[in-house]
Amino acid sequence: MKLIIAYIQPERLGEVKKELFDTEIYKMSVTNALGCGQQRGYTEAYRGVIMEVNLLKKVRLEIAVNEDFVKSTLDAIIKGARTGNIGDGKIFILDLAECIRIRTGETGDLAIG
Amino acid sequence: MNAADTFFVLMSAALVMLMTPALGLFYGGMVRTKNVLGTIMHSFIILALISIEWVLWGYTLAFGPDVGGLIGNLSWLGLHGVGLTPNPHYGATIPPLAFMIFQGMFAVITPALITGAFAERIKFSGFVLFTLLWATLVYNPLAHWVWGAGGWIQKMGALDFAGGTVVHISSGAAALAAVFVVGKRRGYGRTRYIPHNLPMTITGAALLWFGWFGFNAGSALAVNGLAVNAFVVTHIAASSAALTWVLAEWRLGGKATTLGAASGAVAGLVAITPACGFVGPLSAIGIGGVAGLLCYWGVSLKSRFGFDDALDVVGIHGLGGIWGALATGLFASKAINPSGANGLFFGNPSQLFIQFVSVIVSIAFSFVMALIILKVVDKLIGLRVTDEEEEAGLDVSMHSETGYSF
């Protein structure tokens, strides 16, 4: 089992979701996030005073998948999120120790699927 | 008593009343989330506080029978004798009671303008005491000098139609004093003080613009050509200044901003205030246009000097007011107002000098008195919130409320 965490541009969320659905991956958590990487942020100006704003709006996706779905999930996220510009985002893949479905008490692969 | 004139002055008073809560919105949007209520409260409570002050002793000090050109005497204390029989000095066709309430709204908004300078860090009790003392000891005498029958600045021949010196220069100078005494906000130079709600600021600016028609046109105290002229040039100057401010920042800083448009409009309104009863439409374009550029430059100065004039009271009301008063000495024309005077551009250079004197006197008087009052209040009950209170924000620490609960 793997936990896939992806930070993507908010405006790519629709595309990424569409790609995931097309590969029959329907389970995900999405949260709004603030952060920055290579872009370093942007500037705002108030009454002529320039202020550097370091944190950009991003979207964080979390998807827990069984081993045989890892590759197709990653492909779908990349296909949906990639524009080729700085700021497209990053994907982290973590080993998942356990998963429990609260309603039934099922664990492991069964709980994820 | 003329019914139309009286109605006009009462409606104008209502318009000017709206300006003070509007100023609360204008300022409230520019502070951080945690200080929005504290900032709006400054304006709102002044509306109540100074209205009572005005009725009890303010009106008689400002407009009561003259004592040596310096102050009104106390014979109208508590509005004693201020009734319905017109007084030729203060609107010959309207009841003195209507004039009193119209002027009361001016007395209210002036100290409210100052609050932008010490926003986000003033103690509520200290602010209330300062406001009461400043209104009594600075606003009332100054209003008498400029507008009171027998006031010495008026006798000198200075032109101030709706309050450039009394309202804007005096509040700008007091704001500068407050910046020195109250000091910088915590984290000045390290923290970014980003406006938390610009739509609120724009709403406030729009309502200020609207109310300003009462402020300026109402100062004619009658439904006549002067009121029409004041109404029209007020609108022109606001428009002109909003355009020049936005063009300046677009050209120099990058983009045209909403805060720039709102600030420019207010700067134009400030500048036209003393002039609106003496200048024509094309002059108003010039006065507003220069005001937008000048105040845009003015607000950029504070960071160079390290002054934390939080919401640019000095840059906009101080500088805009000074320009307006001097511009009156340049652009005033007897063709617009026969009972006024000609300015420099209409062949009378001495008017500019008279205006200059009235500017210097207003700045010096308000600045020095504000400095003294602030020091005294600081000694008596303190002006500054504690570090913890400032960190938590004035909303919670001064008022036990929060502006937004998402």
Describe this structure in words.
The complex is a heterodimer of chains A (113) and B (406). By secondary structure, chain A is α+β, with helices and mostly antiparallel strands. Chain A has helices at 13-22, 70-81, 108-112, and strands spanning 2-8, 29-35, 42-46, 49-53, 56-65, 89-95. Chain A has one domain: Alpha-Beta Plaits. Chain A is 24% helix and 36% strand. Chain A has a 4-stranded antiparallel sheet, covered by helices on one side. Chain A has a two-stranded antiparallel ribbon with strand order 3-4. Chain A is elongated, with a radius of gyration of 17 Å. In chain B, 67% of the residues lie in helices and 1% in strands. In chain B, strands 1-2 form a two-stranded antiparallel ribbon. The longest helix of chain B is centred in the C-terminal third of the chain and has 31 residues, at 350-380. The mean pLDDT of chain B is 96. Chain A binds chain B through residues 44-53, and chain B through 192, 194-195, 249, 252-255, 257, 259-260, 263, 296, 299-300, 303, 312.
In terms of topology, how is this protein built?
The complex is a heterodimer of chains A (113) and B (406).
Chain A: E1 2-8, H1 13-22, E2 29-35, E3 42-46, E4 49-53, E5 56-65, H2 70-81, E6 89-95, H3 108-112
Antiparallel strand pairs in A: 1-5, 1-6, 2-5, 3-4
Helix pairs in contact in A: 1-2
Chain B: H1 3-28, H2 36-63, E1 66-67, E2 71-72, H3 96-114, H4 124-147, H5 152-156, H6 164-182, H7 198-217, H8 225-252, H9 258-272, H10 281-305, H11 313-331, H12 350-380, H13 387-392, H14 394-399
Antiparallel strand pairs in B: 1-2
Helix pairs in contact in B: 1-2, 1-3, 1-7, 2-3, 2-4, 3-4, 3-6, 4-6, 4-12, 6-11, 6-12, 7-8, 7-9, 8-9, 8-10, 9-10, 9-11, 10-11, 11-12
